[in-house]
Design a protein that fits this description.
- The complex is a heterodimer of chains A (419) and B (139).
- Chain A has helices at 8-25, 54-59, 101-104, 127-133, 177-184, 217-221; strands at 65-69, 72-75, 93-94, 112-117, 123-126, 136-144, 167-176, 192-197, 226-231, 234-235, 245-247, 260-266, 281-283, 298-300, 307-312, 317-319, 324-332, 338-344, 352-353, 355-356, 366-373, 378-388, 412-418.
- With 419 residues, chain A is mainly beta.
- Chain A folds into 3 domains: 8-96, no CATH class; 102-300, Sulfite Oxidase, Chain A, domain 2; 307-418, Immunoglobulin-like (Sandwich).
- In chain A, the strands form 6 sheets. In chain A, strands 6, 7, 9, 10 and 11 form a 5-stranded antiparallel sheet that branches. Chain A has a 5-stranded mixed sheet with strand order 16-23-22-18-19, with no helix packed on it. Chain A has a 4-stranded mixed sheet with strand order 5-4-12-8.
- Chain B has 139 residues and is mainly α.
- Chain B is 51% helix and 3% strand.
- Chain B has helices spanning 2-22, 50-60, 77-84, 91-94, 100-112, 121-134, and strands at 64-65, 71-72.
- A two-stranded antiparallel ribbon of chain B has the order 1-2.
- The relative contact order of chain B is 0.11.
- Classes of the chains: A mainly beta (419), B mainly alpha (139).
- The interface between A and B is large, with 69 and 61 residues.
Chain lengths: 419, 139
């Protein structure tokens, strides 16, 4: 079978010059025009309120797709996520508020982390305390936005319309979250953590938190949880949470609070900003698309679903017909390890087992590779399907619709043109 | 019939050749492109959908207004712009296609949880009508 090239290819080519001239002729002040483009024009972006400088930040992340400039949100095209360790320039950005001046200035002078609430010994720790009093570890951990894949839900779900690129896997250096919580002495009454930071709320109201989420105490004490100050061997960059970030891998990225100032151990489920209502919550039961689910029936998201991404080749690449060529990418799961990855070149009719590398540590993504041979010239799609150690695999279509569009782990597909 | 399909195949061959020589892989058909809402105005956030959107918006004659963050230039655009950009850019609005019920919920959420200024009822109705008209999954 030879699938004809869809007309969109012609359309996209024809459209390109028009888009360029549109960009050139649009006033600089109309920033919306730049949003959604790749960022070759990043140098033209203007700075915003509260000292936030998107120009500097986005200029350091060429190739990312800007979804929102205030607050700053940008995702990574799949082919720029091919590295085993996602470099800074390719790491997606999801901010709920502004980037604090302390981060923009990389100024950690006097920074402290408070651990209080349901603990025997409340702690106020400096960065030096953290570095000197606990075992320092480096772990490769995936961070993925809970709303990654939201763009594919219909009816639409509110929020940034992430496609596939709100995910990255970096090397994080810091201390175990459990070591710090144990030093404070967790009481039997502890139920949940509550994370706080100094990023300003969008309204400018100093009494409001841009975001304050947390995790069940069992998750905070489990393997993987960290308080980190380095990303890929450097101080955590401003937009990723300088100088401190808690990381709870496997959970939605919002459970990994940036600019961390305090972990309040609570005797109840945390009810901070974006813990309640529909934020990072899924219906307690399956609903038809577009259903208005009562708030009391929404439950907090925990583990992210099993997922994979084809990072090489780039979608639309040509490859010789009849010759083997490599397809590769990463697979990960919120619950831990991946058991297998399969790829298909015939729209899921048949599957080929990919070679799968073990994770360097729990919650790191795992490299998969497969050699595929496209039999004749024409249009093909390569699909990837990861299966976790519980036998749960990615669905071929968008999974259960939910009001805020979370947890879409549909199989990733790229186009390959055999010539 | 044979001739037609032959011509079609020829045309596809040309378009493939054109694609191969004149365009980078980045411009290829993307199997993961989000399904566009055919009634959406030009959405600079979704370049992959703008071809279809342009066609639709041309027939609907609703064009983006650069003075108001590229929101569709229609009744209510000015009120919507000034109400919303107090906290966030129009970029997030341009990405939405929601049910009416979700817009009503978001409005209350922004006032109660996010500290949005609550305008007079008349302005509220105008803004919500604007949002439900231009950023809807229902129409």
């Amino acid at each position: 079978m030879t699938n004809p090239l869809p007309p969109e290819i012609d359309a996209e080519i024809a459209e390109e010059p028009a888009r360029r001239s549109f960009l050139k002729t649009t006033a600089l002040g109309a920033l919306g025009a730049y949003v959604g483009m790749n960022i070759p024009f990043a140098e033209n972006l203007k700075a915003f309120a509260q000292g936030m400088n998107e120009e500097d930040i986005m200029a350091g992340k060429p190739g990312l797709t800007l979804l929102n400039d205030r607050p700053l949100n940008a995702e990574t095209p799949a082919h720029l996520l091919d590295d085993d360790v996602t470099p800074y320039e390719h790491f997606f950005v999801r901010n709920n508020g502004g980037v604090p001046d302390t981060a923009l200035n990389m100024d950690a002078e006097g920074w402290t982390l408070t651990i209080d609430g349901e603990v025997e010994n409340p702690l106020v720790l400096t960065l030096d305390d953290l570095k000197n009093n606990f075992e320092v570890i480096t772990r490769r951990l995936v961070i993925e936005c809970g709303g990654n894949g939201r763009a594919f839900f219909n009816p639409g779900a509110s929020g940034n319309q992430w496609t596939t690129g709100a995910v990255g896997c970096a090397d994080w250096t810091g201390v175990r979250l459990s070591d710090v919580l144990n030093a404070a002495g967790i009481k039997d009454t502890a139920v949940y953590t509550a994370h706080y930071s100094n990023d300003p709320h969008l309204s400018g109201d100093p009494e409001r938190d841009a975001i304050s989420r947390g995790v069940p105490i069992e998750k905070a004490m489990a393997e993987g949880g960290m308080i980190a100050w380095e990303m890929n061997g450097e101080p955590i960059p401003a937009v990723h949470g300088f100088p401190l970030r808690v990381i709870n891998p496997g959970y939605p990225g919002s459970a990994s609070q940036k600019f961390l100032t305090r972990i309040w151990v609570r005797d109840q489920v945390h009810d901070g900003a974006k813990m309640t209502g529909y934020s990072y919550r899924m219906p307690a039961y399956p609903v038809a698309p577009g259903t208005e689910v009562p708030q009391e029936d929404m439950v907090i998201m925990t583990d992210m679903p099993v997922k994979s991404l084809i990072t090489f080749p780039q979608s639309g690449t040509q490859t010789p017909a009849g010759a083997a060529s490599e397809v590769r990418g990463h697979a990960w799961s919120g619950s831990g390890d991946i058991a297998s990855v399969d790829v298909s070149i015939d729209f899921g009719a048949t599957w080929i087992a990919a070679e799968l590398e073990p994770a360097v540590n729990k919650f790191a993504w795992q490299r998969f590779r497969a050699d595929i041979t496209l039999p004749e010239a024409g249009y093909y799609e390569v699909w990837a399907r990861a299966t976790d150690t519980n036998g749960v695999a990615q669905p071929p279509v968008v999974p259960g619709w939910n009001p805020r569009g979370y947890g879409n782990n549909m199989q990733h597909r790229i186009a390959l043109i055999a010539t | 019939m044979f001739a037609t399909s032959h011509i079609l195949r020829g045309a596809l061959g040309v378009s493939l050749a054109c694609f191969v020589t004149a365009a980078s892989a980045q411009m290829a058909y993307d199997p993961m492109r989000p399904t566009p809402n055919p009634l959406m105005p030009v959405n600079p956030l979704m370049p992959a959908t703008s071809e279809e959107s342009t066609t639709e918006s041309a027939s609907a004659e609703v064009l983006p207004n650069p003075e108001f963050g590229n929101l569709p230039d229609a009744e209510g655009v000015e009120e919507t712009f000034y109400q919303c950009v107090a906290c966030h850019s129009t970029a997030i609005i341009l990405q939405q296609s929601l049910t009416d019920a979700r817009w009503d919920y978001l409005w209350t959420w922004m006032i109660e949880e996010q500290g949005m200024f609550e305008p007079e009822d008349e302005i509220r109705d105008e803004i919500l009508t604007y949002l439900k008209t231009h950023f809807s999954s229902e129409r």
